[in-house]
Sequence to fold (182 residues):
Amino acid sequence: MSELLQITISGHPGSGTSTLVSGISETKNWDSINGGEIFRTEAKKRNLSLPDFERLCAMDSTVDKSLDDILKMKMKDNQGPEIVESRLCGWWAFKLNLNCVRVWLHASEEVRAQRVMNRESLSRKEAVSQNKARLEVDRLRFNDMYGLDPEDMTPYTHVIDASNSTAQQVLDEVIEILEEMS
Fold:
């Protein structure tokens, strides 16, 4: 474990955040927490599909808040991971005044749909539909729970468009940012 949080990675589903986190972790030999994986694990524990779990979170904000509280606690822990990935971790780092790189990874709707199709074995139509529904549910949920708009880039130190870049190109860009900041 590290001395301090170094970087947060945020982005919409399918933007490549998990791949980026894996690359940084391997390159820098850093520990990480992946909020999306925590979310998926909790859905599985409850025997719910992701859309069903998202609906539960939309109806019961205590579920989301408990997952977010875990992330915030880990982010503030001097012995916590160097990398935290979640849709709102950049916001948490910003609001907690944590001195770290805060990256928002952008990818076009088409690219995100393709990645979700591959990851979750969905048709293109299902992936696009699920992505759109998830973005709208999350936008409303994050606004209701925290007064945050996930489309607001205010907390991010860097916004990277990964739509036309390979995973390696995105990783190289982020490693360069981290080296400049150290």
In short: The radius of gyration is 16 Å. The first strand starts at residue 7 and ends at 10. The domain at 7-181 is CATH 3.40.50.300 (Rossmann fold).
